[in-house]
Design goal:
Length: 294
Amino acid sequence: MATDTVTEVFQEHRPVLMGVAYRMLGRVADAEDVVQDAWLRWSGADRSGVREPRGYLVRVVTRLAIDRLRQVQSRNESYVGPWLPEPYLTDFGDTVADTAERAVLADTVSLAVLVVLESLSPLERAVFVLREAFGYPYADIAVTLDRSEPAVRQLAGRARRHVEEKRPRYEVDPNERRDLTERFLAAAFEGDLDGLMSLLAPDVRLVGDSGGLSKGPVRAIESADNVGRFVAGIARRGLVDVSVRLIEANGGPALLVMSGGKPDSVLQLDVADGRIQCVYIVRNPEKLLLLTVD
């Protein structure tokens, strides 16, 4: 296989490899490291017996991601405050034509689901990602993980039950979510507490991830009154040279707050029944380093 062809084949499958690695790890930098390691193995491997490059590469990335996940699991045990996945720019509209497939991909990369996946074992997480997000047959997953197919089915069932028990049961309308995101932004910047309260569910939660490296709540804030007052309060304090962009991250609309030309935070909303159910705020500067928007 010529060098150009080797590179072209890898680049063709890179979006899928990055998708698998990010869902496994919840960290863009770690996912990119895993994909880079996979490239080094692919470029230096004997590929004469490789009939399906995509399957081969997904297998390599999955195994590398499992190893990396086992190495970094201790991170969250000493993490300051709530932990959220690193924001990940997504644009399924241009790359995935099928609406049902796009909905599945968006759901499995959402902040709410990724937070739940953190509580799975590395093997359970791998099976869930490969099966639920990418639709791989159990037989292929068994080969990838070097496990029997019955064992993989057991892992899949356990992972699916856990995710269904813990994940928010929201039926999300993309247009409604975008509309509420824009109205939330307007009310917050105007310091309109009544306007904010009208958008929030009574039992809304706000989860902020600062990692102890910037200002942010050290625990989740609950109830519409507390969340509304917190959001209105931080909006009034303001930032230097602030601007806000509506982006697509983790499968849905999000607000990228810039200060002094640099990313300050990313806000994303979970929405159901016309109300905001949860507000996620990522302010850890280490999780915003790779976030660039033209």
